[in-house]
């Protein structure tokens, strides 16, 4: 499961979202606000917004319910922090509550927000409390923290570096306090290991395909067992076979290809019933003549 509140950047919003999942905290229409003829939540990404308040509430609450069940059964939780800058609502903002932090600005007027940089100690305490609630809810959970290498240049170059420094300090302190918390250096791999604008997209902000591929390879080497790596290779092979488009479907070579991958996919599903390759298996089998 990925981002049940949508993409979040700051530690306050991440902690609030995790608390929502643990408590299965449902939103009501009065928790939302209307802007540009659309209903939004300050705790959610705009993909949860709706033309009606009822639509947004249903979308949000369904995601919270799913996240509650998933988190209770999860073995691992990966938390990526992007920025230590928070935007607190001002009295001019719709849905104003003193000290309330916006997870997403929803293109609201600038005077609805007051910008503030979290301190490393403040961030550490916030995340410690979140971890305590998580491990009480699911004692078997292992947490992997990362810092996003995406550069928040809208804050300014210096401000972006100050923000990343706060997050790095807090997360390293966390990893030293709990045996169930780990740090994976995605940020350092991109910023210090690759160290080249060739590995960024045209906006010079987001890592490109080559950079994300490099980080993924480092992650699999560090965090996955050999059987898991072999399983990944097999899954990738089946996916590539499924995407293959033959010039002539009736040739013997293609028929052998389909039979081969129908057998491989069947064996995979028998060995790993939690993996759903029904669509791929149907494609391979129906093409056999």
Task: Write out key terms for the chains shown.
289 residues, mainly alpha, two-stranded antiparallel ribbon, 11% strand
Number of strands: 7
Shape: globular
How many structural units, i.e. domains?
2
Low-confidence stretches: none
Largest sheet: 3 strands, parallel
Structural class: mainly alpha
Oligomer: single chain
Summed over residues and divided by their number, the pLDDT gives a mean of 94
* Beta content: 5-15%
Secondary structure layout plus pairing:
Blueprint: H1 11-23, E1 33-35, E2 38-40, H2 53-73, E3 76-81, E4 85-89, E5 113-117, H3 120-137, E6 142-147, H4 157-177, E7 181-183, H5 186-194, H6 209-223, H7 226-243, H8 252-271, H9 278-286
Parallel strand pairs: 3-6, 6-7
Antiparallel strand pairs: 1-2, 4-5
Tell me about this structure:
50% of the residues lie in helices and 11% in strands. It is mainly alpha-helical and 289 residues long. It has 2 domains: 11-226, no CATH class; 231-286, no CATH class. It has a 3-stranded parallel beta sheet with strand order 3-6-7, covered by helices on one side. The protein has a two-stranded antiparallel ribbon with strand order 1-2. α1 packs across α2 (53-73), α5 crosses α6 (209-223) and α8 (252-271) runs antiparallel to α9 (278-286). The longest helix has 21 residues, at 53-73. The radius of gyration is 23 Å and the shape is globular.
